[in-house]
Design brief:
The structure is a single chain. The chain is mainly β and 381 residues long. Helix content is 0%, strand content 38%. It contains no helices and 24 strands. The strands form 5 sheets. Strands 2, 3, 4, 5, 6, 7, 10, 11 and 12 form a 9-stranded antiparallel beta sheet that branches. The chain starts with a strand and ends with a strand.
Amino acid sequence: MNRKFRYMALLMVTALMMCGCQGGGDEPGGNPTPQPGVKAIAFSGGLSEDQNVNHARTRAGEVGLETYTKRFKVWGFKNGEGSSVNIVMNGYTVNWINNSANTTASNSSGWEYVNQQGLGEMEQSIKYWDTTASAYRFFGVAGASETNNPTGNYLPNEANPTYEVTYDADAFNESKTPYYSHLWYGNSADYGKPVQLEFIKPLSKVRFKFIFEDPNAAQDTELTGKNFRPSDGGTIKMKGKVTVTYPLTGTTKTESFAATTEAEGITGFTQDYYEAGSISKNGSGTVVSPYLNADESTSALSKIYTVIPTPSGQSDYTLTVSVNGDPKTTTVPAKYMTWLPGYLYTYIFKIHVDGGVQFSKVQSAFTPWVTYDKPHTVYNW
């Protein structure tokens, strides 16, 4: 079985909720006076640096969440006796206000939620930890608020109550698609510690590339008619609705994800990814792809497609390509065609000395939602 790999170079926008502890419960409304030694919840945002499964670090001089959006919404729930569910924050709006850090008890870095406009014009007051609660859960949505307001739906199932957030996803225009956060879960050991929300786009990225059994053959090989597409003739979906479901009780500490797609899409991926900069022609220093047609744009050197995720899987995919005019075909099994939100998938095809083409491997990466303008280390998954 092929080894899987992971770039942990993650698109991930983070929000830290700095919380203090209090023996009592949540304030029901108003703007209560904090007791001595009690910290109000406050928010800050940053973009995490490359990381893999076993180690994570944040770069010095964080890029703030405000770089991407000036507002996000947060939902918070706590569990009481018998796993009862109590609302802490019902879609609280958190706004970025320039030069406002440390001007109020609830604002440590420029993000403010007290007295900001919330869902249904609700009054947003300071919140504190309830140390008698058995667990807390927080999650949020950020971005695209002007064109794509998410729909929230509390499902009070007696056995497994959940909260769903649904909104449109558009792979043709990423700016219309909000970020959503992973579920943050904490119990008494976590009360008073920062709560980190990790935001990602509910979209996937896909690219395909060629490698050569004999690297020297690349200089004399012309690849044309490239097309990586569903074997069943279906379309690759580019628009739809996504629903993220957050558990509110029990031991499950992660959200689940579902997508429904519209007919709009593309028939196949026709431009491959080439890592520009690794080859120069005739010592001239000019960076070229040895297998691009002369009339192809250099934009094909780094082609990455954005698509709607396929958490329930897809059919096989087929690659067709002509190697020096000789048509070749290879198939990628369906088990490799599940795309999860936030991931980049790289499908690698090997050109053999005899001109044959073979699917070699797929690399999956959880990666920052930024331009892929530099190489990333591939970590062993």
